[in-house]
């Protein structure tokens, strides 16, 4: 690969990380505004117009708060916990295709994606599985019984729901024949009922999507699955002893995980960067195929972010609408509900594929 292409790819990676962190920062503002609207009260409205400066004020506060490490805590692991949680959250966004390709005479074909690997979903599962170590290490290193209990809850919860999530992806793999997120997105650009860019997997895997969505709530520790940090029982859960920016890293990591989960669901089930009538839109913009392709790519990136924002709003809406499960209910749902449903979905998908191939042959 030429040096300019490598430089552009590095800039794309930095841009993805920067945009992800910016969105995560303003997710705190959006969550508080949405909560205020649902509870018939104003959200943050003092710092800047409509309270838009509140996330920046909160960030400054976290940066300048006094660093505190409990006397009985394991110092290095206490610091490593939130760092690992944030690192794995950002790493998982590297393989998500945020757009198609940009064509240029100078730089050739540039993908709007950090890295492209043919096992993108396997990579995400591996990185997400490592993320629970950040929670476990932080909870154990705090030397606090509430923190340790929250960390154990997080570990058992993630293990339980990753199984159902992985089984739902197996059904997707049977359909698409690939674990590459880019390939899955490109397959959904085919016409459906004469509409280009509308052959979305949600029409073929509705049960798989519901399972994946439910597991995403559990994997990101969001209500109604926020048992690892339930305030009524565990004070603050695994980050009870944390303050300053170490607490900020845990909180930001949760929002980054929500963004990545939203991006993955949008790519797997809702076409990713594809949108209805994209071929017709390209032809309307320009008769030059290169210009039309680049324009559709830019519009597609904007459409993908709209889908991501829609899922983020759904995460927040559910948080302020549904009550928290009991822990036995959470595990029963995972082991006795979602895992059997995932297996049934795999069997149904296999039967439909075999039936289709039989009649087509």
Structure characterization notes:
By secondary structure, this protein is mainly alpha-helical. The chain has one domain. It contains twelve helices and two strands. Strands 1-2 form a two-stranded antiparallel ribbon. It is globular. The mean pLDDT is 88. It is an enzyme of class 7 (translocase). One of its GO terms (cellular component) is plasma membrane.
Low-confidence stretches: none
In helices, the fraction of residues equals 55-70%
What's the helix count? 12
Tell me the radius of gyration: 22 Å
In short:
The protein is an all-alpha fold and 361 residues long.
Q: What are the key terms here?
A:
mainly alpha; globular; NADH-quinone oxidoreductase subunit H; NAD; NADH dehydrogenase activity; oxidoreductase; 361 residues; two-stranded antiparallel ribbon; single chain
């Amino acid at each position: 690969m030429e040096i300019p292409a490598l430089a552009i790819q590095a800039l794309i990676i930095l841009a993805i990380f920067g945009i992800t962190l910016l969105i995560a920062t303003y997710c705190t503002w959006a969550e508080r505004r949405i909560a205020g609207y649902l509870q018939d009260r104003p959200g943050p409205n003092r710092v800047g117009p409509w309270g838009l400066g509140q996330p920046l004020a909160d960030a400054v506060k976290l940066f300048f708060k006094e660093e505190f490490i409990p006397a009985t805590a394991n110092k290095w692991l206490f610091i490593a916990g939130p760092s690992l949680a944030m690192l794995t959250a950002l790493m998982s966004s590297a393989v998500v295709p945020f757009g198609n390709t940009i064509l240029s005479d100078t730089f050739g074909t540039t993908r709007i994606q950090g890295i492209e690997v043919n096992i993108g979903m396997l990579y995400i599962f591996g990185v997400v599985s490592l993320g629970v170590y950040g929670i476990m290490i932080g909870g154990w290193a705090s030397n606090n019984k509430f923190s340790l209990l929250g960390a154990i809850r997080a570990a058992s919860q993630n293990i339980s729901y990753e199984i159902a999530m992985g089984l739902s992806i197996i059904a997707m793999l049977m359909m698409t024949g690939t674990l590459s997120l880019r390939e899955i997105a490109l397959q959904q650009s085919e016409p459906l009922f004469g509409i280009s860019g509308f052959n979305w997997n949600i029409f073929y895997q509705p049960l798989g999507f519901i399972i994946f969505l439910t597991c995403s709530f559990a994997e990101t520790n969001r209500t109604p699955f926020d048992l690892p940090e339930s305030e009524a029982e565990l004070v603050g859960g695994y980050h009870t002893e944390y303050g300053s920016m170490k607490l900020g890293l845990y909180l930001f990591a949760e929002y980054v995980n929500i963004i990545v989960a939203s991006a993955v669901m949008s790519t797997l089930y809702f076409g990713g960067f594809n949108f209805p009538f994209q071929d017709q839109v390209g032809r309307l913009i320009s008769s030059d195929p290169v210009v039309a392709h680049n324009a559709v790519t830019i519009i597609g990136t904007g459409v993908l972010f709209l889908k991501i924002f829609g899922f983020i709003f759904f995460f927040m809406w559910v948080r302020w609408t549904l009550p928290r499960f009991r822990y036995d209910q959470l595990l029963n749902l995972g082991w006795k509900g979602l895992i059997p449903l995932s297996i049934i979905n795999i069997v149904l998908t296999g039967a439909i594929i075999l039936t289709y191939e039989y009649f087509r042959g």
